[in-house]
Amino acid sequence: MTVRIEKSGAVWTIIHSRPEARNAMDPASADALEAAFTAFNADHAASVAVLWGEGGAFCAGFDLKYSASLVDNPRPLSSLDYPADGGPAPRGPMGPTRMELDKPVIAAVSGPAVAGGFEIALWCDIRIMEESAYFGVYCRRWGVPLIDGGTVRLPRLVGTGRALELILTGRKLPAEEALRIGCCEQVVPDGTSRRAAEAMALQISRFPQACMRADRRSVYGQSGRPLREAMQSEWRNGVPAFAAEGAAGAVRFASGKGRHGDFSDL
User: Which has the closest alpha carbon to 95: 3, 153, 33, 16?
Assistant: First the structure.
């Protein structure tokens, strides 16, 4: 079993463990990761997930030893194509990369997150990297394209020019540079990414969840829309969350809680 789940209240830590392969993805692991995130999304008691690679590597990409077996038989790849009728997409080659979750996921990145592993990190909402961790389109060397969202999500994070430079050269992107260009949100000492991600996940899980998810949904939904249309969508998405939680939150504030930016007593 290469994927397991450890739960702490509303926080789920989903662990990918193929340390002998630097957590490179094979089909069994991809299936297991997708199943884990499907269970997380469906569980009403779960609020935030952390994705962590055990053994000092986030993910070294798709298992190229398995890929070599597809040279004479590419049919397994055709089964992952998007259906022509517009129906639900099958899982991505790297597992959960085509899923559209209702809840946030934080990547805890140690060591390499390269090729498809970079794409999984980009799929997550937030990336916390250790000081020696790094990204990179290392599959550039072998003629393996980005097919798990890398060419879509990376430009949206860092802009087209920076994304193209990283994608076309395949060079290493160290943690400090990733932070500087907006490809990750936090850099922490080596060996602490899981702990830092779980601490952030716990903080997020303490907030009123309908409002948090509405704001997250609005951030993703505005992409590519004209300003007025995006603003209208934000309004229509947010009003039900205010009715569900915001009015009651205002009452708590009026009673004296949370003054001066205090997050300790919600």
Answer: 33
Q: How many residues does the chain have?
A: 266
Sequence-ordered list of residues with C-beta below 8 angstroms from that of 125, at least 6 positions apart, any chain: 104, 105, 106, 216
* CA–CA dist 149, 206 (Å, integer): 30
How many Å apart are CA 79 and CA 250, to the nearest integer? 50
Q: For residue 228, with 0-12 CB atoms within 10 Å meaning exposed, 13-18 middle and 19 or more buried, which class applies?
A: exposed
Task: Point out which residues pair with 174 in neighbouring strands.
Answer: 134
For position 87, what pLDDT does the model report?
85
Residue 62: the pLDDT is: 92
Which residues fall within 8 angstroms of residue 235, CB to CB, at 6 or more apart? Answer: none
pLDDT at residue 85, as a whole number? 85
**Kind plus residue range of the DSSP H or E element containing 16:** strand 11-16
Distance CA 60, CA 96 (A): 16
Q: What is the pTM of this model?
A: 0.92
Parts of the chain with a pLDDT under 50: none
Whole-number pLDDT of residue 80:
83
